[in-house]
What we know:
This protein is α/β, with parallel strands linked by helices and 321 residues long. 30% of the residues lie in helices and 27% in strands.
Amino acid sequence: MHAIVVREWGEPExxxxxxxxxxxxxxxxVLVRVEAAGVNPVEAYIRSGAYARKPSLPWVxxxxxAGQVLACGEGxxxxxxxxxxxxxxxxxGAYAEQLVAAEGQLRPLPDDISxxxxxxxxVPYATAHYALxxxxxxxxxxxxxxxxxxxxxxxxxxxxxxxxxxxxIGTAGSEAGLAAVKEAGAEHVIDHRGAVEAERLLGLTxxxxxxxxxxxxxxxNLDRDLQALAPKGRVLVVGSRGRVEIDPRALMGRDADIRxxxxxxxxxxxxxxxxxxxxxxxxxxxxxxxxAEALPLAQxxxxxGAVMRNGKVGKIVLRTR
Length: 321
């Protein structure tokens, strides 16, 4: 088979399409023919050498994919050859024509969900669910601000929040992004090319403020987020690209919280629950990943450039054919 291989840390061009040994499933593992692989910012950070935890080289990037089961190892009972599946984690990298994953790292992919959409589920939708429910403890009827809602995680958060019964305000930085956020279910959309002032958010919530903020760029927005919180509000920091100064009084007067999160901290039981919920949302039609761009596997370098650019609407994926 062919795979994208990293043999040294550096710029996107260090990723090369190479012949690579076919993976083989061991006990409890499943071999999957990859049709599409999801591209996540964390993979770009690892490839650059800037990430705290780095795999050994050579390395095949990627954890999210969708495709068909080719073979099952001993003890696998939930899948058989030909099943459509999506992967959220793998023993071998997803930027490849085949991968091996543990049985518990796979879920069925409904027939009406494309392989591109299946590859968009793992990190983005699980992160959004983990933020809203495990870390945010969302309650039906609460107001949630998704700050940076037009990217893959942001659109997932909007869809999950609306499906659960939250009232959603979403921000984006382009007309296409604003339209996508509205289509995903946001009650109000705000162009964040200008500052999103607390007064506006207070007005949209009848003076209460927002109960939850899903924040994709905390180094820019966090201090203003705090000014717009309702009593006992929670800011969920999904992303940040630098340091930030805040006024702690904005937390003290509201009994409010700033909660960081990383999907890597979710337990196996939490991940199983998250993906069971995602499966229900896919079956019920409330979850529909949006694809920003689908590129051939050989263009992994271009995909890493695209995933790190602002303004994309939805998910970047790589197709193997």
